[in-house]
Amino acid sequence: MKREIIQTADGSNTIHIPDMDENYHSTHGALQEALHVFIKNGLELKKELSQLDIFEMGFGTGLNALLCFIEAEKGKQHISYKGIEAYPVEPELIQAIRYEDLVDDCFHKGFQQMHELSWNETHALTNNFTFEKIHSKIEEYLVEHEQIDLVFYDAFGPKAQEAMWHPSILKKMFDMLKPNGTLVTYCAKGQVKRDLKALGFTIEAVPGPPGKREMTLAHKN
Fold first, then answer.
1. Residue 139's pLDDT is what?
2. What is the pLDDT of residue 1?
3. What does R_g of the chain's alpha carbons equal in angstroms?
4. Could you tell me if 60 and 88 are in contact, meaning their C-beta atoms sit under 8 angstroms apart?
5. pLDDT, position 34
6. Sign of CA dihedral 62, 140, 128, 217
7. In 3D, which of 105, 102, 191 has the Cα closest to residue 170?
8. pLDDT at position 182, please?
9. How far apart are CA 194 and CA 68, in angstroms?
10. How far does CA 132 lie from the centroid of its chain?
């Protein structure tokens, strides 16, 4: 699968897949999208938890994990972060994407470690941040029930990867979430919201990042 680096409107980079005509992040701004969707409307909803367990569907470039690492270090909230990825990004693309340029120098080592450390093992990057990247297809991954506070659902959109939004996959997210856990996604497609509701989620539509009118929060009440 051919992947290439492109610059987005806020100056941060993302990866473009020509064969799918799909990007890893919004062309309106990779960084501002990640901050709006997964930090402002995700992590900040769980600030009251001293221990926060996060699962990311689509580890990708590691941008969301990097932002959570920064928040853990600044806020002294302990975060346990798991990200699943079936098709890891090549090391040379991670170097070329230059996400280190977006953050303070003290966070560079943590981001590098995320991509260099072994798969399918838990690593303590600091006292406040533990990290595991899972090399697996989500269809083959056996979830542990009610272990996660927050799901970042950051798979490619339904148009590009419809199977990733099938109710059977969304059911895995429901099962892994603790009571009062939340799934957050940039996607606001009507069918996805109906499927989430049918699984037992309470759906909340909130304003999306630049270039997108809405995004979705799904709460497991």
1. 97
2. 77
3. 16
4. no
5. 98
6. positive
7. 191
8. 98
9. 29
10. 13
Reduce the DSSP state of residue 85 to 3 states and report it: strand
Q: What is the 3-state secondary structure (H, E, C) of 11-56?
A: CCEEEEECCCCEECCCCCCHHHHHHHHHHHCCHHHHCCCCEEEEEE
**Residues β-bridged to residue 28:** none
Across the 221 residues of the chain, what is the mean pLDDT of every consecutive 10-residue run?
94 94 95 98 96 97 98 94 97 95 95 97 98 98 97 95 97 98 98 98 97 97 88
Strand order in the sheet with 13-17: 4-7, 13-17, 22-23
DSSP class per residue in 85-124: ESSPPPHHHHHHH-GGGGS-GGGHHHHHHHHHSPTTS-EE
Cα torsion angle, 218, 36, 19, 17, sign? negative
Distance CA 30, CA 41 (A): 16
State how far the Cα of 135 lies from the Cα of 118, in Å rounded to an integer.
10
Instruction: Go through the domains of the chain in sequence order and give each one's CATH number.
Output: 29-219 (3.40.50.150)
Q: Report the mean per-residue pLDDT for the chain.
A: 96
Q: Cα(124)–Cα(142) distance, rounded to whole angstroms?
A: 23
